[in-house]
Amino acid sequence: MKKLLLKELWEKLWKRPTAKWLLGIPVGAFLFLGLGAGGLLTFNVSMQMTNSNEFCVGCHIGMDTVVEEYRESIHYKNVHGLSASCADCHVPEPFLEKMETKIRSGIKDIYKKYWVKDINLG
Asked: Which of 40, 38, 50 is nearest to 98 (CA)?
């Protein structure tokens, strides 16, 4: 009984639709699923990249001495082999606060770098 029901469902799902517009429903669903997955992947990759030390130091040019001090500190070198990144202390963990911090500091830094022409964002 159960096997027959599954077979009928399978055949119904893969049967060619009688109206051409019905084909657009699954195609559209797969398209939106792909776009959503791509958007989520892009968002996660950008969050990872903007939390890296290389990203921070890329704009905060005047912080060279801070970077050197950081690399010699216990935050970078320790017996446990762990290191704290800039984001660990300067970006909040909760999602909404993280987004607010990234948006506010991003707008401020872009404004200072490209309109005020202040290279040192530190």
From this structure: 50
**φ, ψ dihedrals at 60, nearest 5°:** -85, 70
- Give the Cα separation of 121 and 58 in Å (integer): 10
Within 10 Å of residue 87's Cβ, how many Cβ atoms?
A: 20
What are the domain boundaries of the chain?
A: 46-122
Band (122; pLDDT cuts 50, 70, 90):
low
Looking at residue 36, its pLDDT comes to 97
pTM equals 0.64
Q: Using 50, 70 and 90 to split pLDDT, how confident is the model at 37? A: very high
CB of 120 closer than 8 Å to CB of 64: no
